[in-house]
Amino acid sequence: MNKILSLIVLLISLHVFSQDKRVPVDTIVTTNHTATINGKKITYKAQTGTQPVFDSNGNIKATLFYTYYQRTNISNSQTRPIVMSFNGGPGSASVWMHIAYTGPKTLRIDDEGNPIQPYGIKDNPYSILDVSDIVFINPVNTAYSRPVTTKDEKVDKKYFFGVNADAKYLADWLNTFVTRNNRWKSPKYIIGESYGGTRVMQLAHELQSKQWMYLNGVIMVSPADYKLLRTESSEDYAINFPYFTAAAWYHQQLTNKLQQKDLLDILPESENFAVNKLLPALAKGGYIKNEEKEEIASQMAYYSGIKKEVILKHNLEIPKAYFWKELLRDSQGKTIGRLDSRYLGLDRRETGIKPDYSPELVSWLHSFTPAINYYIQNELQFKTDVKYNMFGPVHPWDFSNNNSRENLRKAMAENPYLQVLVQSGYYDGATTYSAAKYTLGKIDPSGKLLDRMHFKGYRSGHMMYLRKEDLQKANNDLRTFILNSSQNIGAAKY
């Protein structure tokens, strides 16, 4: 593979340095590549480097590490769609979707997503690079991104680590990136996974209202909605319940009547029960009549594989962590995964209320960590001694004044072109598919924007793209969404 190496370094004052002096503040390494995607050969270049975060006075606050893929065998790159990609955490590098989902390379894993030694990468024949350029961005303290301070100055954590602060500085950074790379005429998309769902909901409004950068699409992959997540409210327990049905069905813990049905035939039943029966029952709290409580517990057991007496002892409120410990406790003595409940774990003791560890995350870190470190330094030719932070120090994270749902609604209302796509795995127990559907409904209670909101589900977990069948399907869904929402549909008006 013919690689061209170019280096651009910004001269920095002797009084300014990054928190880790080995991190270059403004630099680019360019390499050229070829790939076969959707059966067609394409050529592309990868720009890997760092770009500063500037404050309103032009001072450098941080430097963000990114990788920017551009298809080169096309006639007009300026009007080609561009996808700006983030992961979540908060505190996670943009590694997961980079080398396992939308990028031109993917992990060496088996068809179900399990790591294979020796660890490494291979070509991704399903990448969306054939229809859109992609930039993977790493927020401060993730990957090689770091704050920048003057001598004796402390890092301004409030500038970076919070729902609103995060969106503000990332919007500023994206403005610089789009300007530097001459992409203002391009159809623009932002995609975020997990906490990245909250991030892109907030970022959509920040980009449009403060940067006047209007978007064609917002894509949320397994989104985390902190208006619901871990609130332990009646809504939290009820809305997440259909995930129990999916996980129990996968592990064959339901009755024969349900196991004989296809997953997509029983999930609507569970969703209907959760919203129309379980939620009203939970809302009654201690006022619920014993007869109704018994009936609800029986139905919960039917749709979850958890014993009725266990459900009653929990007063109908089954925490997800307890479910991961309980589902296979008696039959196999194993736990199931949080982010992907197809994975199994082994605890020290079968007793307890939650698993000792997340077997799926351990599995993923086995394959992702060596792969991204090898790929960046050897194929993208970005050389550094700095540690690549898979998860970086960003806490405490400020969740106050989280109006991300409403801000996405405003962004959609103010931009008739803006479309939204949500992708979720049915076996994701952390940010469940049913919670993602619920979020879409809560973004716009009027229902007037629902025709611009799209949901796609997959038979896998949080990172549904790790399963080969869903890698292809999910990328095709992205490809269709981008092609449809980037078409010229006339004037942007109602």
Automatic annotation (TrEMBL):
Q: Which UniProt keywords apply?
A: Carboxypeptidase, Glycoprotein, Hydrolase, Protease, Signal
PROSITE patterns assigned: CARBOXYPEPT_SER_SER (PS00131)
Q: Which range is the signal sequence, renumbered to this chain? A: 1-18
- Quote the Pfam families the UniProt record gives: Peptidase_S10
For this protein, the record's InterPro entries field holds: AB_hydrolase_fold, Peptidase_S10, Ser_caboxypep_ser_AS
State what protein this is by name: S10 family peptidase
